[in-house]
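Handout, section B. The chain below has 364 residues.
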Amino acid sequence: MTKIAVLPGDGIGPEICAAARTVLEALDTRYGLDIEFSEIGIGFAALKAQGSTFPEQAFQTVENVDGIILGPVSHLEYPPRDKGGLNPSGELRKRLDLYANIRPAATRPELPSRTGAAFDLVIYRENTEGFYADRSMHSGIGELQVTADVTVAMRRITRHASMRIAEAAFSGASRRGRKVTAVHKQNVLRITDGLFLECCREVGGHYPDVAYEELLVDAACAHLVRHPERFDVIVTTNMFGDILSDLASELTGSLGLAASLNAGDVHAMAQAQHGSAPDIAGKGIANPASLIGSTGMLLEWLGRRKVNAKLVAAGRSLMDALDRTLSNPATRTRDIGGKLGTDGFARSVAASLTDNHPAAWPSV
């Protein structure tokens, strides 16, 4: 049995989580994955019912499942932490040690990119430290207000976190067979990015078949816009990775297509790159492609961890079905030129699933 927790979140979160579940249930029926679902309230709904946007009971439940699907949350609108306003995404990344935020960005022939170039890259973003105030301190947060007119933010970079995100990136690049680009700002952040690059170089020495280069973050942004096809795997620190991945995904045609997986050694969580879009919530028009794609990544990760070829094949089948659905203008959502709503798109993806015979399932 594979236990998956669904945390609907805020805004369009419940709608796109329902869409991802529609596709997962179709996969479960078709391939016999034996998935057990649990739905857990978080966000504003949980705040109203339990006094916290991320109740402790919710964490205790997700701690004991195999995989998590997290809907977008409106954490900027939450009250302060001492009044129950916890960011579920940050809490889960930190408390479950989901240190690798893996964000693919690839163009599709039927959906023109913003640059006109075809490219296929993956960004490995360190997820547990850096300039993110809720993740940079053991106790308290890494942002301080010294006086009414003076504020300070602290950035934590450790050898442990840098080594393992570098290992994840080089391991991923070895499967793709190309290169790793470490993105940094060592000319200004000499000590912290110096340590990060030292770790990348050390890990890279264990992967002689993977090419390696280093780029300043400003140069990386320029190259992404002008020549995105030059990149294969990018590895970088938390804030740079957040910015670069949104840029790369938008260049593919829409941030609404951007899949994302938060992975650690024990747990993994599917999460759309985009936000909660409260302006269109409840209208049934949100594009669920990002979260559906993230769910495919989750299945493949679970399959590799559990040594379960059926789960790996199901994840790949989901991604293939998503590509087929997006390739047809008649089965796209309105934001990318189609006519379907959220549920209709999910049903089209489910209908596009193809049969895989067990003999064809991949080795893991």
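Note. Confidence is low (pLDDT under 50) at residues 357-364. Compare this with the example in section A.
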